[in-house]
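Lay summary. Proteins are chains of building blocks that fold into shapes, and those shapes determine what they do. In this project we predict the shape from the chain. Here is one chain we studied, written as its sequence of building blocks.
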Amino acid sequence: MRKVEMIPATKCSVKNIVRIKTARELRVAAYCRVSTDAEEQQNSYANQRAFYTGYINGKEGWRLAGIYADEAISGTSRAHRKEFNRMMEDAAAGKIDYIVTKSISRFARNTVDTLNCVRELRRFQPPVGVYFEKENIDTLDASGELILTILSALAQDESRSISENIRWTFQKNFQEGKPQINLKQMLGYDKGADGAWVINPAQAEVVRFLFQQYVSGYSANAAAKQANEAGMRTVNGKLWTAGAVLNVLRNEKYVGDLEMQKTVTRDFLTHRSVKNHGEAPKYYVKDHHEGIIDRPTWEKVQRMLGAGRNSEKTEDSIRQRCAGKTVFSNLRCGVQTEQGVCGGSLRRMTYSSSAHGYRDERSAGFHEEEQTERYVYAYPLFCCTHRRTGNDCTSKGILECALEQSFMEMLYRLKRDDQMYGKDSWLAAEFERVCEIVERCGSIKRGSVNRKALLDGQIRETERYLEQIKVSVDEGRQGMLGSEVLRSRLECYRQERAALEAEQGETAAMKKNYALFLECLRELPECNQAGMPIKINGLDTQGTLFREWNGRAKKGMRSAVSSGKIRITPEHIANAPDYIKFEKGIYAVFIQNGKVCGDEVDYITNFGVQLKSYGNSRTLSSFLGYRRCPEDGKVEFLDELWKVNGRKMRYYRTERKNKNAV
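And here is the predicted shape, written in a compact code that computers can read:
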């Protein structure tokens, strides 16, 4: 028999003994965790720390290697448990020999995490054990892993049960109109003494500012930039971004409503919340609390965002039209051709021209004898696409600023007419006529406008009969057949009523849109940013210093002003018509389409009335003599073409010899 020589082990391995009861001079750490920040949990958290500090220090042969404690952290995932992960790193670095914890559920509620961490600790050199007091399990005991697997699975199932109970509680509260919202993380509201929502005046001004900027035509990015420049901050004290602004604009709580269960938690282990796209019911409460934003403004913004609850327009189409560059893309050419109306779409194009007499800091260092310089401004206009496809369309390009100005002049004319005549105004009479036509068509189709009321009565009566048959004990064969007939009849009644409601809903939607349009019309400002009453060309003033009200130039006036013979006085500015800021929100919400024919544009609204604007064939020269008042309140007199629409100047400098552009 051959002699076998044994080579002793040099590294510590896991032994089939309970080391925690026999070992000496062990570096022992304790792990504590509480899952919420409730007061009773905080007491438990403090008690755990105090207990293990005294417990380890009082044990002979043990030395405290640290107390690792996660506060208000769930045990279903170790991703956010900073202290737990730090403990694992220290164990890997050889700073810990043993870990003591109260129970498996304190260590982790995820079976996979529990087993992976325990096995990882056992693989260290030397191995690191975990002792669970409640279950009396030592992971360095070879027989302990089976029990640990079973008990950790029970701990995970307990977490699942708790998660389902919490979800049920939330849904019960939602059904009763009780939200789960932390108002400390919501801009504009504070929690009152009785739990009611109280408006925070300073924060509410920020919310109103963002809504007003967006309604006025600014993009979310531009509104964020202006809010930051004004020193406004989010509820967390951070700078505004476009995404943060859109979150505010889409939040129904600012109009006083409340939508609950917008998100759902799919997996109780990861606690990851996702948007509720039908996985769970939603709960909506109207007028739950006092709103910061009035409802007309709210509905206008939702239409612009394309997220209105009853909007017929798609989100993509409204977002495209509200992008600024394509706001008039729903217009069509109405020029008569040999084949009929052209009907071509309008394409936005940009032309440029030199800005004579303009100078800024970019001219510094210019040497006239060696270089030439030029300032160029751009102005957009719309052209019919059929002009480039061989069609016989004879339309001309229309300036974007002319379309905007004519649209606003039309709105102010309607506003003045409404102020003067009220229910007898042209708009009110025209809307009443359109509603009569729509209702008459619906009446002809269904025979009578009272048919819906009759159907409601028949449905109620049939449902009552069905209920009587249902509760009857001795129904018999004849009763069963009768109930089938009644159910079939009830279904027919409901289908007819649904069809009738769809037709009558068209009128209801028109009336709702009309009322909202009137609100927007009446909210148009009467004064510009400088406090001067807004004057409309042809309505409040008959032309400008340079032109008559119909656009005809006054001979010699421009040369007289440029030569200094006539000076622009405050009186000239006071009598000048306003270059009105375009209300992009009103256009995007109410104008469905339109037809351009020369100087006129016919707009079709979503409340059925056709509106007409004039002055769309104006050139840049037509706006000379107008006044413009930006947000800073400084009045600007438009006496140069580049001032009308040339807000961004491009600068070119060319060497006279090599002519290289700068």
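What the prediction tells us: Residues 183-313 form a domain with the Hect, E3 ligase catalytic domain fold fold (CATH 3.90.1750.20).
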